Amino acid sequence: MQLTEEDILAKIGNDDRAAFEQVFRNYYTELSRFCLKYVRDEFAAEELVQEVFINIWERRHTLSVNTSVKAYLYTAVRNRSFNYLKLQMPKELRKVDVEGVVDLSDVAENREEAWVMDELRVYVQQAIDTLPPKCQTIFNLSRNAGMTYKEIAEELDLSVKTVENQIGHALRKLREQLNPIWDKIMVLILIQFL
């Protein structure tokens, strides 16, 4: 008999390490790859994913998951990746070479690139955050988790047509949200190439 996600979460909430380890084994590798797209550092990606799982285990008695386990994990990893990137910015400013001399051109270039990417992420994330919860989950599974419409439909127990409609709705809403700031986005992109 195959356990439902609710059963698995209940088992984890009741201190069942085997259920927790099963979820870890099922998702760790793909979540690490997903995180790597954001942080571009393999070691940091693995650490961040491990932190997400540690956090889940520590909160297992009070954890409330309103989406699928997979959607919850991808959202948690994405959020932790964004927090990591925000914390990395000050470190870039303190980067020092082996001689103890700051290479200002490298720091300025990295800082500009990071700033541009952070600004773009903020704009896009704010637009995504305005989507209805179901639409947001489907959009994140499609764009961030790289799942196909069929996989999303199976994961969320929906029809493929519903997933297609939700993605179309999300893209229309995002265009509406981002259209007024399109000029700002283009300026940020151009700054990166100057």
Structural features, described:
With 194 residues, this protein is an all-alpha fold. The protein has 2 domains: 1-66, no CATH class; 95-194, Winged helix-like DNA-binding domain superfamily/Winged helix DNA-binding domain (Arc Repressor Mutant, subunit A, Orthogonal Bundle), CATH 1.10.10.10. Helices cover 77% and strands 0% of the residues. The chain contains 9 helices and no strands. α1 (5-13) crosses α2 (17-39) and α7 (149-156) crosses α8 (160-178). The longest helix is centred in the middle third of the chain and has 26 residues, at 104-129. The chain is globular, with a radius of gyration of 19 Å. The termini are far apart. Mean pLDDT is 76; it is low at 92-108. One of its GO terms (biological process) is DNA-templated transcription initiation. Keywords: Sigma factor, Transcription, Transcription regulation.
Distance between the termini: 60 Å
Number of DSSP E strands: 0
CATH names the topology of the largest domain as: Arc Repressor Mutant, subunit A
* CATH architecture assignment name of the largest domain: Orthogonal Bundle
Q: What is the 3D form?
A: globular
* Mean pLDDT rating: 76
**Largest sheet, if any?**
none
Give the helices and strands as they follow along the chain. HHHHHHHHH
* The CATH top-level class label of the largest domain: Mainly Alpha
Pfam family, one: Sigma70_r2
Keywords: Sigma factor, Transcription, Transcription regulation
Domain HTH luxR-type: 146-173
Family: Belongs to the sigma-70 factor family. ECF subfamily.
